[in-house]
Design a protein that fits this description.
464 residues, Aspartate Aminotransferase, domain 1, Aspartate Aminotransferase, domain 2, 15 helices
Length: 464
């Protein structure tokens, strides 16, 4: 539904650049450049304040899974806000949508993951997982079992605790983070692994490294392993065959809790409601999710916990102690109503199945970009892909950072009606899960034109 609102573009632009604090922003030039202003959205498309209609191949921020303008979700939000806009989430209080959503998420989750702790997003879901794990080992008489295993280039959030588990060094520059005892193993970055291993050989290397790390630290000191089934911000890194199932065996043998960070991959992005076990055989003990849980219509995150962990937490850690963790806006009834409507759409329209059906076609189209001079690698799964741009395909050398290769390509794409995400030398796609073949064709054709236009710019500037 198109709005008739008339906006003062200069007024909005100035208010934003003078007062807003945006995440992941370069403030060395923000005051001069300001923000792009989006005013409407429908289906796959957003419209900016100048009337440009753009296919959003980032799905917001990996999150608008069922697409924009879904009246079912909007109507559920409005109805619940009128009926009960807030319910105290503490001291055994709940609301109908919160109770219904808890049961629905538990039904969709694998194995015995049948308890759900809600929060406001992915960062807080991962933060909550860490607090639960610490409480679990304290309650079960193992207070020294606190070390965390994470991976280089991992992203798990931007709260102090979740950021400290991340493995992206650039994200930590300038911030003082708490030492939560994190050790890092290699990411499954096959294109750039120093040993130049592939397939099963690369999987063997990663699993052996993980086993040696557990041995060197001592399994009696390791609490958990945090891992995204497919690493998102770290470059859309897909694990090699057998990687997670073999690491899961090591974790189970050593009582190391597996936290599957499905903030991005959950709710259909890889073609399953939860990909960690259904696709990658991780056998997680905890799943954190957010984004696709409401398709971005309202903020909501969830930490899904195994019955084994929750059974142990029924015993207080100390006499008179209670479970002193929670958030004012956890179990928010309006957010839970949005999530229920979102999941109903996904089930009714078989949206995960659409991803399964069309992902091979999307992959084949994107793979064909490898014939371009600056495209070094194309990788991904489901509706989640990255294109890695290089200055030299033989050596895999990168363009100098000031060239801004990813940003150049994204700018050309936007000029042609397509939003993709630049990430240094990468361009990332995470579109709504409602894509059709003709939408994939448009994305592909526009990407090819944009990369070719960028190559032309580089040649004229003697950078290629």
């Amino acid at each position: 539904m198109k709005s008739n609102a008339i906006y003062d573009q200069d007024d909005l632009w100035n208010k934003d650049r003078l007062h807003a604090v945006h995440g992941w922003t370069d403030y060395s030039n923000f005051r001069d450049q300001g923000s792009e202003i989006l005013v409407e959205a429908d289906g796959l498309y957003v419209t900016d304040i100048n009337g440009n209609r753009l296919l959003d191949a980032m799905g917001g921020v990996w999150c608008v899974n069922v697409g924009y303008g879904r009246d079912e979700i909007v109507d559920a939000i409005a109805a619940q806000a009128r009926r009960l806009p807030f319910a105290n989430p503490f001291r055994a209080t709940t609301s109908p949508p919160a109770a219904q959503l808890t049961a629905k998420v538990a039904q969709l989750a694998p194995g015995d993951l049948d308890h759900v702790l809600f929060s406001a997003g992915g960062s807080t879901a991962n933060d909550a997982a860490l607090r639960l794990i610490q409480l679990y080992f304290n309650t079960t008489g193992r207070p020294d079992k606190k070390q965390i295993l994470s991976r280089v280039d991992a992203y798990h959030g931007s709260t102090s605790a979740s950021a400290s588990i991340c493995g992206i060094a650039q994200n930590k520059v300038g911030f003082d983070l708490p030492d939560v005892g994190t050790r890092y193993v290699s990411a499954p970055y096959e294109y750039r692994n120093p040993q130049n291993l592939q397939g099963q050989a690369f999987s063997d290397f990663l699993v052996d490294e993980f086993a040696e790390t557990v041995k060197s630290i001592g399994p009696e000191k390791i609490a958990c392993f945090y891992a995204e089934p497919v690493m998102g911000m770290g470059g859309v890194l897909v694990p090699p065959p057998g990687y997670f199932s073999r690491i899961a065996e090591i974790c189970k043998e050593n009582d190391i809790i597996i936290v599957a960070d499905e903030v991005v991959t959950g709710f259909g992005r890889i073609g399953e409601y939860f990909a960690s076990d259904a696709v990658f055989e991780m056998a997680p003990d905890i799943i954190s999710c957010a984004k696709g849980l409401t398709s971005g219509y309202l903020p909501l995150g969830a930490t899904i916990i195994s019955s084994q962990i929750m059974d142990a937490l029924q015993t207080p850690v100390a006499e008179g102690a209670t479970f002193t963790h929670g958030f004012t806006y956890a179990e928010h009834p309006v957010c839970c109503a949005a999530a229920l409507a979102n999941i109903d759409i996904m089930e009714r329209e078989r949206i995960p199945e659409n991803v399964q059906a069309l992902s091979p076609y999307l992959k084949s189209k994107l793979d064909s970009l490898l014939d371009l001079d600056i495209v070094g690698d194309v990788r991904g799964a489901g509706f989640m892909f990255a294109i890695e741009n290089v200055a030299d395909k033989k050596t895999k050398a990168l363009f100098p950072a000031p060239v801004g290769i990813g940003q150049r390509i994204a700018k050309h794409a936007r000029d042609r009606g397509l939003i993709i995400r630049p990430g240094g030398h990468l361009n990332i796609l995470s579109p709504p899960l409602t894509l059709k073949r003709e939408d994939i064709d448009f994305i592909f054709d526009t990407l090819r034109e944009s990369i070719e236009a960028t190559q032309g710019d580089l040649a004229r500037e003697d950078l290629l």
